[in-house]
Amino acid sequence: MPGSLLLVVPSLCVPSGWGTKVIITLKKTRWNTKRVHRLSLYLEKKGEKEISDDEAEGKKGEKEEEDKDDEEKPKTEDDPQIHCNCIYHIIKLGLGVVKDEVTAEEPRAASPDEVPLLDNDEDASHTEEGQEGQPRERELSVIQELESKQSGKPDSVAQESELEPVVPEVVTGNRCKTDCLEAPLSRAFQRLGWVVGSYPWVFLLVPMVLTAVLGTGFIFLPHEEEDLEEQYTPIASPAKAERRFVQEHFLANDSYSFSASRRSSEYNFASILVISRFDTVLEQDIFREISKLDRAVQTLYAVHNGTKIVFSQVCAKYMTACVPPNPLLRAWQLDKTLYLRNLTFPIYSHKGQLVHLVGSLGGTSLGEMVGMGKLILQAKAMRLVYFLKSEQQVDKEQSKQWLIQFLDHINRLMASLALEKIKKTRVVDNIRERMSDVYSKVAVSITITTLTNILAFYTGIMSSFRSIQYFCIYTGTTLLFCYVYNITCFGAFMALDGKREVICLRWLKKTETPEQQSSSLKKFCCFPFGFEPEEHEAHIHPMNVFFRDYFGPFLTSTESKFFVVLIYILYIILSIYGCLQVQEGLDLRNLASDDSYIRPYFNVEEDYFSHYGPRVMVIVTKSVDYWDENVRQKLGKCMNDFKNNDYIDKNLTEFWLQAYLQYMKNNNQDPNDKNTFMNSISGFLTQFPIFTYDINISSSNEIISSRGFIQTIDISSSISKRLMLLQLRGIAEKCEIPLMVYNHAFIYFDQYSAILENTIRNVIVASAAMFLVSLFLIPHPMCSLWVTFAIASVIVGVTGFMAFWNVNLDSISMINLIICIGFSFDFSAHISYAFVSSSQPSLNQKSIEALYMLGYPVLQSAVSTVIGVSVLSVAKAYIFRTFFKIMFLVMVFGAIHGLIFIPVFLTFF
């Protein structure tokens, strides 16, 4: 093009071993003040100066033909302006020169995308020094030859220019570039932008049709999922395998011999916690009130499909009577003269029968030892549990209907009681060129951030929890579709809006009389607020100036760096300490709303009934010779190991073998004789039918398996539950007799061991995926390392400060931590890439330029996200509040890393 200078310099896509950095300096001789243009090779094209009106009129026709040709075809890989993998890189330098004339007007102010002008003579002198010993005539001839080829004019035209010969100054340095994937991807998106700009309606309508077609899949989604075990417990839980063994070897009969501790799976029940307003519930008047409540509950009935369902029909039974909701209340109902001030805990003997009060009374204060227990001084609470049958499907359905009726009556009773890049393109540009330019600039960035977020969520598929798997699959797929719609449908909207701007601009330009002037309303609809059609370039935002002129220099000062390092050390110390204090596992009460009746129930249960935990089965999994004294000694040693554990009450152990040996001793039978031992079992079970379901005898009169019971204590916290489970399983594994421990609550306790393992694995895999993606798509390996460092640092901080904000490490917070990985990448990747891509000579200047370019967008992203999720801070559900807390921590820590820590740390290396 006339008036341009074509300069041939080594391409950006050089082998990493070259490590070259090219700085081009040009000096205009006819200016009153000497201005030196410093240009860096990452800028591909500069806008040309305006020529005079007379010359513009002469060039008008030729320029219109050239523009028309440019609009009809997209740039290809042969275009030197966008070709990267070439041997030489050609840069147009618009110098405002036409033939022999140089414009004398002062150059306009540079836009944020342009390299600033430098007025000092130091750079000029540096250029002149760098020209010594260079073959100036040879380089000038090469330049003139290439210019003549580009413009189609003979070499003499180029010789008429009064510019001083230009010599490139090469400064060597170690700048490793790996843009072999990023560069072609950018060109591919450039062509896609051209196509979207050419056919916007196609890219608008096709996604809408696809949405309508895929939207029909909603009819195949299940309407509800009530199985908490399926959603919130580990898939490969060891307790689930243990449950299958128990179900295969031990029978259960809810209609004749129900026993809660012998149940292998969860069962339906209704529970009421009664709390005394006085010091104790052990008063005759209080027992009378509780007895009235009990009778009212047992008289409830439900109607389902025209069938009346009464409590006696759905209650779990022992022998022929419903299992009493509270054994002490039942004893008082049978004997109103029962003296409530003479009870012992945890076992009370009433008329020769042992009454177990564990789980029946809570908030107890105990005195001296009396018989098998300690005297109860006071008991603050009583629990009533109405067990329901759940063996058959019909029993489950009827029990469910009765429970619904129960909840309705209880509730009534309680109520009676109490777009940055598109703005930087020219409005007057061709729509296809604008879209092509936008796609080439931002599509790769969108691809990187979207791909990393998708990979972060898809790593959650490896989790052992169904709820996390479902969430990550749905969210990852949603992000994938959002990405496709962004580069198609949203791009089509931008193209159509760009055409609207062009049409509005033509209306404004064609006005010739005051009557034809566009109205203020039309101007407001056509252009953004404060926009003038003559302003082709966006102005510098004040916040960008703040980061460049104030915040950046302040942050890169020596004193500030020292304090930043101290703050980061304190941050890491607090984060690690918090990581050691975080609670693991999902508290079931957190799945309910704050105003749900279940939350106060669990709170009272934790306050008054948390000392005693579940009753655990100790199962002999294989056939052993129980009549062999050595076997009995080994088994007794293992049972003593269980009793001596800190989480076991040694006085509440129950084992059929001990009772059977006492039975044989009372009958003068030899327990070491096999025939005697096996033949006497039937008489023993007749006298003690409760043990019938603890011994599995085959048809060949062989004991295949059997079980005993131990009572856990002091496991109110998630850590104690996990330790108890691991210790009991460890004792069973070390025993010389094949043993297994099980309680249906272990299925939920397994999450306390699995959640930490799953979280660490998912975070490591997701971080590795982030590193690989950044390594391939961001053309700077050092940038990938800093991104990975920032991800690890933010995750440690978020996890640690979760403990300070009362957030457990559970399946809900694990999902948010996976989200944390993606956001951490977004904040740190752009700042790091801007730093390593900067052409500034010093590390501090590189950091300042990175903050100038991306500090404000990072701050905007963090603040807008926090504002968006802040409404969840007052939500009534723990799930939403947890999402807000973790997202708030992610945004704050991510922004601090992107705006403070990373810019400072980058200056150290």
From TrEMBL:
Keywords: Cell membrane, Glycoprotein, Membrane, Signal, Transmembrane, Transmembrane helix. Gene3D superfamilies: Multidrug efflux transporter AcrB transmembrane domain (1.20.1640.10). GO terms for cellular component: membrane; sperm midpiece. Residues 71-80, 123-141 have a biased composition (Basic and acidic residues). Its main location: membrane. It holds the Pfam family Patched. Residues 407-496 form the SSD domain. InterPro entries: Patched_domain-protein, PTHD_SSD, SSD. It is a multi-pass membrane protein. Coiled coil: none annotated. The chain crosses the membrane at residues 438-459, 471-496, 562-580, 759-778, 784-805, 817-836, 856-879, 886-906. Residues 47-80, 105-141 are annotated as: Disordered. Residues 1-19 form the signal peptide. The keyword RNA-binding does not apply. It comes from the Eukaryota. It is found in: Cell projection, Cilium, Flagellum membrane. Belongs to the patched family. May play a role in sperm development or sperm function. However, does not appear to have an essential role in spermatogenesis or male fertility. This is Patched domain-containing protein 3. The lineage of its organism: Eukaryota, Metazoa, Chordata, Craniata, Vertebrata.
